[in-house]
Give the backbone structure.
Amino acid sequence: MRDKITILVVDDEPMMRDLLAKVLIRDGYRVLISEDGVAAFEVIEKEDVDIVLSDLEMPLMSGFDLLKKVKDEYPQIGMIMMTGYGDTYTVKDALLLGADEYITKPFKNHEISLVVERVYWRLLSEKHETGAEVK
């Protein structure tokens, strides 16, 4: 079932993108990657993305701007925000803008797996309640 879920990883750091992709592929998800918010939104417009896992601090389009744009135009997509600056205001702002979850860097591989799993089950539950197609 996880192989039908597409996760878009968005981070300007190549090592972080690669690490996240490896963890999520190992967990059985289909993974796409983007280096910034602009490229990520282009992927979202072309691909059937279920969850976006995005850094907050990026060039061209920040994670906050990407979050706002995705929630405005594709509200069914789950959003997980990553930050190296885990202050309460940053987290609160992301959640108020519609983020489903957040995770603070650095994190352990199993922590990212748990956060993605929570969003996955929440989305599955919402689709079931609304009668939408369940992947």
Notes: Residues 32 and 85 are 25 Å apart (CA to CA). The beta strands are 6-10, 30-34, 51-55, 78-83, 101-104. The helical segments are 14-26, 37-46, 63-73, 88-96, 109-130. The mean pLDDT is 89.
